[in-house]
Sequence to fold (294 residues):
Amino acid sequence: MNKKLEAKNIKPLYERLAGMPEYPSVVSFGDCISVDTGYGFDENSEIYAIARALMPWRKGPFRIDNFEIVSEWNSYIKFNILAPYINIEDKSVIDIGCNNGYYSFKMLPFNPKKIIAIDPWPIFYLQFLFMNKFIGSDKIEFRLIGMEDMTSEGIKGDVVFCLGVLYHRTDPIAALKEIKACMNDGGELFIDNLVIMKEGYYALCPPVSYAKMSNAYFIPTVDTMRSWLERAGFKHIELIDVKKTELTEQRKTDWIEGLSLDSFLDPNDDSKTIEGFDAPVRAYFRCRRVDGKR
Fold:
């Protein structure tokens, strides 16, 4: 067993899931990933109790029979921005910072060869195991590691998704090089990152926190983000979209613990964070690893 699963707050949940049967289900991969088991699970069921014990649910939403897991993020908003560009049929995919696997599950209808979903947080791994008791996919391999471990673990892929991760890295260019090293020649990267809406080559380096995130280290302009990708060796860099994070996308729900976006913004001016910086905006890029002169 992975040592992370031996933690006193994780092991009982892991053992509870290990004893949980699989429930072959009719699965719908809509905005809300929905499973219908035929058992009519509702808020009085043991399944509901397990789902609540696995809080906080950051990514989703999911529905199991008669109850919905209302995640902090309506993650389909981000996925739907990228979906028209996704071509992963018969390709190996890496989902970096996969959280509970919502995006990996959403990719299954695109017929990938396999998906390696990586995230170092055991509670998200348990959420993945829980949902896969219903979805039953054998194409997703969840690795309980960080992106810095990909090379030593020998992970390689044709298409990589790195969503909402880079601003948590203290050295973004080094992180991008780590991503590139795990990609096959010609491989494609989809990445989003927080950006500041200014022209030129600048990056915000918050002294304490950004939107109450103490682990948000560098927030670049779009130009700077592009230059980071170039310095890391990526080619054919395309800006797909730039989108402000709205309260319809990220908000506090009954399925998380603690605060969310509405508490991270200035109560008198929602165009600013609580620290006085511009409110969160994300830029979405795709680019390629191209060896040689192509």
Summary: The helical segments are 11-18, 46-53, 76-82, 102-107, 122-135, 172-181, 222-231, 261-264. The chain has one domain: 3-288. Residues 3-288 form a domain with the Rossmann fold fold (CATH 3.40.50.150).
